[in-house]
Amino acid sequence: MQLQALHNGKVYQNAIPTSVGPPSGYGALLKRWLFEKAEREPSKPLGPFRADAAALAAPVPAAALRATWLGHSTVLLEIDGRRILTDPVWSERASPSQLLGPKRFFAPPLPLDKLPKLDAVVLSHDHYDHLDPVAIRVLGRTGVPFFCPLGVGAHLRRWGVASDKITELNWWESAALAPDFTLVATPARHFSGRGLTRNDTLWASWCLLGPTHKVFFGGDSGPLDEGFRQIGEAYGPFDLLMLEIGASDPEWADIHLGPDNALAAHRLLGGGPLLPLHWGTFNLAFHAWRQPVQRLIEAAGTEVPLLLPAPGQRVDVAAGPLNSRWWE
């Protein structure tokens, strides 16, 4: 039986028991934040990184599969003649305030007003590091369609996106981007909320199914085991998998994968080229900022084809593994 999102009449719940709060308590977390010595932020400025706006604006070939990582979970995908943007975040801080909160390690490699014409924006959930009102307001004025989990559409409408440009889906529901291109919302193990609210909107991963290529975008998720296996069996194998590897910690192991669990999820989903997301952009955990990618490389060995571009570097997936070592 496929994993289903649960709703108790008030809030959404994960399909399997999930701990969101730290088992050791928030006092222990505060002590770690104050006294642990990991290099959580780069000691020297990073970049500047620059995406090639002119190249990205050129027509997308009908059988292309290319990805440009713009930082964190924001990726500009070129897939089968179409452009899809995931979890657009352009603000300097992933926070309700641009005065406080996690600050970007580097400026966005592509200015928001230099984005090429998009065919879709796909959102995984409503946390501040995945849903940026500044970006949404700008993108909403372009008329691009948005695809999001249940409840997230209320945020988009509040920020000026027309209702007829918003498609909200539950897990396992699908929507046609075109007659030959389908988007499917699939399970994830996480939570949602902005400000004081929590779990009044759903979270999801996504399968992007074109006529030639298939891409899996994991959003934010902890280990899902049978759920990942079900996704792989239903919609794989994938030509590209995009999974989070950063902001992980044993204290919240149910809601973020980290490098080792990302590799386990990669196997359950059926394997394929892996583009790691959700690292190297914001200070959201206790680990050193380079640790997720260093551990991923170590644990993956030669078995998993890793795509590790610099921010803004366009990757042709068919060209094979890539290690830019930009973080060094």
Automatic annotation (TrEMBL):
**A Pfam short name:** Lactamase_B_2
State the species of origin.
Hymenobacter mellowenesis
> Looking at the record's lineage, which domain of life comes first?
Bacteria
| Protein name per the record | MBL fold metallo-hydrolase
Metallo-beta-lactamase domain: residues covered: 82-279
The root-end lineage is: Bacteria, Pseudomonadati, Bacteroidota, Cytophagia, Cytophagales
The record's section on InterPro entries has: Metallo-B-lactamas, RibonucZ/Hydroxyglut_hydro
